[in-house]
Amino acid sequence: MTDYLLRGRSLAAERIAFRDDSHAFTYAEVDSMTREAASGMIDLIGPGRSFRAAILSPNDSRAFIALIAAVRAGGAWVPVNARNPVSVSASYLAAVGCDVLLFHSDLAAEAQQLAQRVPSIRYLVCVDDRPASGQHGLSDLRARGANRPAEDLGADPDRIMAVYPTGGTTGLSKAAIWTDWVWQAATTAFWTSMPVRRPPTHLVVAPMKHAAGGVALWMMAQGSTNVMCRSSDPRDVLEAIQEHRVTHLFVPRRCCT
Predict the structure, then answer these.
(1) What is the mean pLDDT of residues 221-226?
(2) Among 80, 96, 178, 218, which residue's CB has the most CB atoms within a 10 Å radius?
């Protein structure tokens, strides 16, 4: 994932990488912010650089910053569906051995319940910097690592990059392991199938824990702008497509019988 971020920066360092209603971060800023936050995570968690970090957030630019930082620090991304009952999410996080819970303050109550139910969770980090007592904020981690930004990990195709939950249609979700090699293959297949002729813009409508989050990260390889959209109302989506001249959009298909 880091390689694709750096490739995006090499193509257009000042292009917006992630945008929402309140924030817009360029590729240069994302590189700097995630490197600092990654160093802060390493300082917080300790040596070893192997941990699992869950993301509990609506579509938000800062959640993507936290996610990329966790991977740069040596963590594996554990996507969590913010719409799931706490009991379901707790079962999955316990099964995968989640160490760090990165959450948005809109879901602070759910995050606290998860921390109480999952013994392996050692740290709570609020991505929009509204932590409660005993928690950490993303800016805190950046400040912690600002003077010694983390060096990126060396190439290792077998390193675990993500632990995706399966659909769970026949019971609780199982853990699907994505290595760096799998991520590279998916990114390559994506761009081979859908080449572009102008700078791409991706509208993130489906939850970032789903394929929309993966697509947003694959898009970095071409210096894409990822625009957050929290509403799935068709009118809002169409207006966002027109406003931002969107080239890519992932939406789930609803099957009817």
Answers:
(1) 96
(2) 80
